[in-house]
Amino acid sequence: LFRSFMSRNLYRSEQRALEVSAEAIEALLTRISNSAEFGHSTRSQEVLRYLCRSVLSNPEEKITEHQIGVAVFGWDPDRDSGHDTGVRVQVSQLRKRLDHYFASEGLNDPIAIRLPKGSYSPVFEVRESVSDTLAPPGPIPMPVTAAPAVQRDRFTLRLLIATNLATVAVAIAM
């Protein structure tokens, strides 16, 4: 059952990914560049634009650290990049910025860009609207925040453990 669910969703994701146009990605890149998260980081903007445009122009080609270094950082093409961590560090920061952007300012963007770990090739995800995937028919439920409940549960658990330990201590003392 789980495999069936996953394969259906992966297939649906692949189908939606095919619907992403270069124009939609360029519009998204402009929104991302103008955001508070990316506004002051021109290097992140440059790396993101390079990665997205590379995938759009040649989706089958694997993007390498060396290609990014030459195209974005201005490295000499003959440079040995084996010990230089600049590209890896920048892409790691870019992943974090993208995650933060799509969890805040870009929460309602119809397309999300993800950079899977271990890869320099971005993945474009067409997001389904909340009403299509999560909301049952009928009135829209009020948002529920889980953080206070989790804190209460932790407090209750700690209180329960302390009470049990005190009970055991009293039983041993008798």
Could you describe the 3D structure shown?
This protein has 174 residues and is mainly alpha-helical. 58% of the residues lie in helices and 5% in strands. The protein has helices at residues 2-18, 22-33, 42-57, 65-71, 86-103, 130-133, 147-173; strands at 111-114, 123-126. It has a two-stranded antiparallel ribbon. Helix 2 runs antiparallel to helix 3 and helix 3 crosses helix 5 (86-103). The protein is elongated.
Number of strands: 2
Strand order of the largest sheet: 1-2
Distance between the termini: 54 Å
The quaternary organization reads as: single chain
Range of helix content: 55-70%
Shape: elongated
Summing up helix and strand content along with how strands pair, one would put the structural category as mainly alpha
Short description:
The protein is mainly α and 174 residues long.
Keywords summarizing the entry:
single chain; mainly alpha; 174 residues; 7 helices; disordered N terminus; elongated; two-stranded antiparallel sheet
Topology of this structure?
Blueprint: H1 2-18, H2 22-33, H3 42-57, H4 65-71, H5 86-103, E1 111-114, E2 123-126, H6 130-133, H7 147-173
Antiparallel strand pairs: 1-2
Helix pairs in contact: 2-3, 3-5
